[in-house]
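Hi support team,

I submitted a single chain yesterday and got back a structure, but I'm not sure I'm reading the token output correctly. Could someone confirm the output below corresponds to the sequence I sent? I've pasted both exactly as they appear in my results page.

Thanks,
R.
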Amino acid sequence: MSLPSVLIRKSTGEIIKHADYPREDMEPIIGLDPDLEWLVKRELFVAPDYDSRIFILNQNEAITTTPDLEHTHLNQYQISYNTIKRGSEDIQQAVENAERQANESIFPYTQQLKTILLGVAVLFRKTEGLSLSPKEQVVADRVMALAVRVWKNDQAMRDKIQEVIAGTEPNIDEGWEKDESAII
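Hi R., thanks for writing in. Yes, this is the structure output for that exact sequence:
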């Protein structure tokens, strides 16, 4: 079975093509131009797990003269990985997006207008000194419950942004108030 490989021009280091090695048995290519060389692609290690909102994964590829362990007549084209931390602004934006998603899960956009209008109507009745009906009290209680959860998410977002400013990587997915079933 042939393996993923790279054909290079030795004199210039130019990569001519990425393809499977031309022989199924992986034996040397008879008559190959002496300036051309096939290298076997080898990953030095698997790509690391990383949070793409905080880090960027770089794939590094290198032409080497390191003989392949399995096919010693071929050298290796080595692939390795490293992560680079994103800029503070990008990470802060990811935190803000996570807060927005958490708030959307507890207070879906499609319910916001109705809930806010009902809440304002109840507030007006209450500020005018009128007693609230049982239905209106339920609306007031629900709006307050939503507000508490949104405030908690706002604080979680602020804490995570402080971590970013301090140079640490926050766990963007934890600590949010979320609920798939709507309160209202």
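A quick pointer for reading it: Residues 4-85 form one domain. Let us know if anything else looks off.

Best,
Support desk
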